[in-house]
Specification:
The chain is α+β, with helices and mostly antiparallel strands. It has 4 helices and 5 strands; from the N terminus they run H-H-E-H-E-E-H-E-E.
Length: 116
């Protein structure tokens, strides 16, 4: 085998190792934010499903839906679990109001009808 082939093989292996290692570092750095986004997404989907069957949702209803809610990324042992249901429910409903998915009527929330 020629020395140039061996040198190129070692260089390509080093480059591949750097790319995989860098990808792992970025993924680890963003993991907590990704888990929280996934948790909010799951909660958001549950509230939307609930509002398809019911006209209004309250903070207490969202607390019941958030019970046992968890988010996990593939190939990772780390999870995000809702521990403070009241805080999570309040933040989720505020987010949904802010993004225009629901509107507040007193202590209840209802789906916004976007039919025009």
């Amino acid at each position: 085998m020629k020395p140039i082939t061996i040198i190129l093989g070692v260089i390509f292996f080093a480059i591949a190792t750097m790319i995989i290692y860098g990808w792992g570092l970025v993924r680890q750095k963003n993991q907590s934010a990704d888990l929280m986004n996934l948790l909010f997404s799951k909660g958001n989907a549950k509230v939307k499903k609930y509002l398809k069957k019911n006209e209004y949702v309250t903070v207490e209803d969202v607390e019941k839906m958030a019970d046992g809610l968890e988010a996990k990324q593939p190939f990772s042992g780390n999870r995000a679990i809702v521990k403070d249901k009241k805080d999570f429910s309040t933040k989720l409903l505020q987010y949904m109001v802010k993004t225009g998915q629901i509107e507040q009527e007193g202590s209840r929330y209802k789906k916004i009808n976007n039919k025009k």
